Amino acid sequence: MSKDTRQPVGHSAVFVRPLGYRQFGPFTALVDAQGWMRVLFRVQADPDNPRVRPKDAWRALLQSLPYNATVRFLLSWWPEETQRLAFVQGMTQWPQPEQPARKALSEGLLDMAMHLPLPFERQLVLEFRVPPQEAQAQWLLGVPGLLSAYGLLCEPLSPEDVETLARRVLNPEV
To answer: Which has the closest alpha carbon to 148: 38, 76, 68, 61?
Structure first.
């Protein structure tokens, strides 16, 4: 008699309860309940490449996907601090107004820029779930090069970024 190991539709405990991090080749991977490695990459269009071809990139990525490996595309909103920091940096270099009213306006604008919530931008995250084999880690090493041929930049997420993403996805109010 064989035991039915199928999980009911909608069962996600395996996804949301990783067993921690482990070094997997050059990557820090999440280990899932079956011992498989989950490596996440942030993907964005290369601003210096006018010929970005995401459809071709996804086709090439899916065609190169190793046997038993899976990929999940996650679209998330990520806080973007670089724009605010650039604006504040620029403001500090403006000439200081001499009139008290303009000085108060300038200080208020700087205070507002420093303390308002961060703006958000969409971020595409690719999650690869692969068996814990060295060949799979070597394949993951080639993913950034594969996507760069189509005008996409790809970088692995750090453990801190993975935890931030999990908080954002599971509790968007945070």
So the answer is: 61
For all residues of the chain together, what is the average pLDDT? 80
pTM for the model:
0.67
Rg (CA), the chain: 22
Tokens of 154: 């790809």
Question: What are the backbone angles phi and psi of residue 8, rounded to the nearest 5°?
Answer: -65, 155
| Cα–Cα distance, 132 to 25 (Å, whole number) | 10
- DSSP for the chain, please give it: -----PPPTT--HHHH----EEEETTEEEEE-TTS-EEEEEEEEE-TT-S---HHHHHHHHHHHPPTT-EEEEEEEEEE--HHHHHHHHHHHTSPPPSSHHHHHHHHHHHHHHHHSPPPEEEEEEEEEEE-S-HHHHHHHHHHHHHHHTTTEEEEEPPHHHHHHHHHHHH-TT-
Give the angle 80-85-89 at the CA atoms, nearest 5°.
160
Q: In one letter, which amino acid is 87? A: F
Across 12-18, average pLDDT? 57
